[in-house]
Amino acid sequence: MIRIALVGSIGSGKTFISNLFGYPVFNADESVSKIYSNNKKIFYKLKKRLPKFFTDPPIKKEELIKAIVKNKNSLNIISKIVHPEVRKDLQKFIKKHNKKKAIVLDIPLLLENKLNKKKDVIIFVKSPNKEVLKRLKKRKNFNNLVFQQLKKIQLSLDIKKKYSHYVIKNNFKKDSVRKNVKDILNKIL
Prior knowledge:
Helix 2 (28-38) packs across helix 5 and helix 3 runs antiparallel to helix 5. This protein has a five-stranded parallel β-sheet, sandwiched between helices. It is of the alpha/beta class. It has a single domain (2-188), classed as P-loop containing nucleotide triphosphate hydrolases (Rossmann fold), CATH 3.40.50. The chain has helices at residues 14-20, 28-38, 40-49, 61-70, 74-96, 129-137, 144-152, 157-163, 174-188; strands at residues 2-8, 25-27, 102-106, 121-126, 166-169.
């Protein structure tokens, strides 16, 4: 099985592009969202470590944002509690799709959390910063302070690009991105 992993900045279009490959996609953001909605064990771990910010299950975005904005250590605490659960979801996903020709990994902190394997095909999604910020600001619950905190825990884009085998320039026009995806698939399959 070929593991195709997309890396890039927050809001660069990794999720949209990952779905264009036509293979099963592990979306870490969706995994986190499900954990926040359904996992009471994680809620109580967060409540124990950050009691001022969490009231009742499920974990709410507003509570997370408040915790991250008010306490610079909160993001690290949240990550240490949530990321092991995401890893478990990833392992289940890989096991479920182990007979597929390829899978796609849409994991924002793939390299930072050393989730990549030596044979992974890593694709850097390069998008214009101005366009990315404009798109992020349209997101519900966008908070610039949280965005800045998240950027601090990510590797620089130069390092992500250096680790990548391919670059897709995402100008947010579907046709050019589709062509890039098709070209890469032709080379790796």
